[in-house]
Structure formats: C-alpha cells, structure tokens
Predict the structure.
Amino acid sequence: MYLPKLHKVWLCQNSQGGIYLTPKMANRHGLIAGATGTGKTVTLKVLAESFSEMGVPVFLADIKGDVSGMILPGEDSEGFQKRIKNKLGLDIDWKFSGYPVRFWDVYGKMGLPVRTTISDMGPELLSRLLELNDTQSGVMNIIFRVADAQGLLLLDFKDLRSMVQYVGDHAAEIKMQYGNVSSQSIGAIQRALLRLEDQGGNVFFGEPALDIKDWFATDSEGKGVINLLHCTELFQNPLLYSTFLLWMLSELYEMMPEAGDLNKPKMVFFFDEAHLIFKDAPRSLLDKVEQIVRLIRSKGIGIYFITQQPADIPDSVLAQLGNKLQHALRAYTPKERKGLKAAAQAFRPNPDLNAEAALGELGTGEVLVSLLDEEGVPTMVQRAYVMPPRSYLGTCSDEVRRQAIQETPLHTKYAKAIDRESAYEILQKRAQEAAKAEAEPEYEEEEAQGSLRDEIRRNTPKATTRSTSTRSTSTRSTRTTKEPPSVIEKVATSALQTFGRTIASSLARGILGSLLKK
C-alpha cells in the first residue's frame, strides 16, 4: 500500500510498527524467496499494487493463473479481519480496490497476443531456446549476419527456415566471408526448429510484434497499468518461458534511455520462477544477464526475482538485489539446511533475531525482511507479516477477462496477425528471377539460330547446303560450349555482391543479440 503522505510503501508490519519501502530505492531491485505455499504470490501482489498506486506500470507473469483477480476489489471476511487485528495489530477500516490490468498471452487465448520476430529475438536467445551447442550457435550467428547484411527481416518461422536452407545451400560462397558452415550444423538447426514448432513455440514469432512502450501506461486515476502475462500454458515449456521473459527484459534495457536517480521507478518487472533463467545457461549468457541487472537500474527499471531458494540465483546477480523478502524455507536434507543457513547469512544481522532459526519457523505470509533505507543502506533483518492485498485473492471470471481484453485500446493493434514481405518472400522471388534469367538466353539463342538457318537455306545453293549447315553447326557448338550459369550460381553471385554493398549498413544488435530499434 503506497502512502502518499509518507512517500513510502507500507510493505510489512510487526510489533515494532510498519516496515516501509522507499520508492527511490525500489529500482535497486529485489528478491522474493520461499518454499511453495509460504505466500510469495501474495507478497508479489502487494508490491505490484503499491507500485500501481504510485503511478508506476508493472509487468508480472501469472504462472498459476491466480493473479488475475487483481482487476477486482478484494472481499471482507471474518478470517481477513482476524489477520488484520490479531497478526498485524491494526484497528483500521481496510479499503479494498481493484487495479487496471491488461491481460497478455503468448498463445492469444487468455489475453492480447504477445509476439516478437525472429530478428528481434536475435541469435543468442534463439540458440538457447533451440538448445544448440557452441558450434551450432556459431552457425546461427552466421545465418543472422547474412540476413542482417542483406536487410532480410526474419519475422516468422518460415523466414528462418528459408534462411537456414539458403545459408546451407551456399555454404561454399559464404565461407569466404563468414567462416565454415557444415551440413551437420544446418541439419541440427532444422531439427531443432521442428522440435520447437511441435511444442507450439512458433506461435509467438510474427507481427505485429510487442512494442514494450505500450507497457508504460496509467489509467484515468493515475494508477500504473499492471501488464499481466498469462503463463499457465507457456510454463509447460520452462525453457520457452524463461527465454521469452529474458527477451522482454533485454528489450526494456535496450529501449530505455539513461535516467539517473529517480524518485520512483519508471517500471517494475517481476520475474517469477527466476531460477529458470540461470539453469544450464552458458557463462556468456550469465555475464550478460548480470550486466543488464547491474545497468538497468540507471534507466529507472526495477527487477524483482521470485524463486524458492536464493541459491537458485548466481551470487553476482544476488548481490545486485537490495530489497529482500524471505519467506519460510524447509530444510529436510543436508543440502537444504546449507541453503537455509546461506539465506540467513545474506541479511544484515540483527542482534535481537536469530535469522537462521526464524527461517524454519515462519508461517504463511510471514517473512524475514531487509529493505534499503533512504541512503541505500540495507536495514537490519526483521521478522514481520506482509500487509494484505487490496485486490481479490482469487481469479477473475472469463467474462471479466474478455471484457477487459476487448476494451483495451491495444486490442485493434495486436489482436490480428499480419504477414508482410520478409526473408521467405524475398528469397523465393530471387530464385524465380534467377530461374527466369537462366531460361531466357537459351530461348533467345535457339530462336536466333533458327532464323539464321532459315536465312542460309533461302540464300544458299542446294549443293552447298550440307557443308554450310555443317559449318553452322560447328560454329554453334563452339559458341555454346560454355554453359550459362545455373540458378544457384546466379543467386550466390548476387548474394556475394550484396554482401559487399550492404555490409556497412548491417542491422545493429544489443547485449543479448536483440535488434536495436531506431
């Protein structure tokens, strides 16, 4: 709950009073951790509501489908009043409220369709999505370099497939410019594309692509819009889920200008099941994620990772998370006990609290909390209860969801897919033009030779016709000994000429390989 008079977020409450998050420190990132069923989702909702109330747009992923109720005001109950009075020690008239929510869905079923293009995602994230090895990832980079150099936009799956085939067919010519492209790597990429398509991963490649700027919106009351991505189906493929959210994060980073220290964030990004970003990720990708987390703060973006164990997140990233809310951890094995101890030691010590013992005793909705003060210094760890959300704790009805989707001004922009000319169409057109160019000289030559023979027959005595015909045939044979270039040779020559002309104007890419927008 955002308190305008205090210019703070009332986040938790204990016997000593309220525990507040300073908006100025909200973009120093945060961590919400804890075992399943300990209240992480409610904590996420309280934070999201507070940011919305201060006019800050929010993005969050709804993995279980239980966050959609934020669009509706909460409901009073006997149990709710007991929590307010007995656990929080408050005697106040609690005001419930709904929040402006925009529903999104990669599959377009439970929200506005979320699409990106192959070119926008870039070779690095796409290689991770396709689970390519280093050699195959290198070939994927070459495929993108060739496409970028020629200004060929890779918008959807058919564009990428045609470009993979094109590079494979012209590997010998491309090798001179970019390096070796083996048929084995091309085959592996093609098989990976088929796998991803079978898993439904091709649906979010296309246009109109998501414009992240559309997230930055407020309603008529000045509340920040909560952009809620429905992930119940998407999360069935964890690699797809994590790669897609990582692309969104990189888009935010590349798009936003430097902003310096602000009084409140421009946007807050919640990344649920954050451990999936880092699972089996190569070191090069981890370094780039760390760089984004470290630098995006100065662009006014706050990132909050939600996961079960703090140890799921690399230390280099964990060190960037200044605001920490740790729910209960269960320690039944030596490894879990070690993780519990490490989580307790990550807090600034409090002489009046045994953090390690408390972590195993916390109830649902109870946390160990340490937030950055107004000087950016972590406060001593405290044990407290998270404030209750103002919105509805359950899910909204399908009717409410449909109405919200239909009424958003973005519906006309994203609801219908479009398919404009891109790499597939251009490569098809080149092949057709090359085939036509190959056929025309043969036809013209045969026609000219036929006319010449007719002219010779008309003007040459019969006695000498055979010898003249023999000489003509001999001449024609000599003239046509060199075969005209094939379709492949013409296309390859054209491509190499294009490389030389356009390499200076290749498309620019960002940290994670996503396309930079001009």
In short: Confidence is low (pLDDT under 50) at residues 463-482, 495-505.
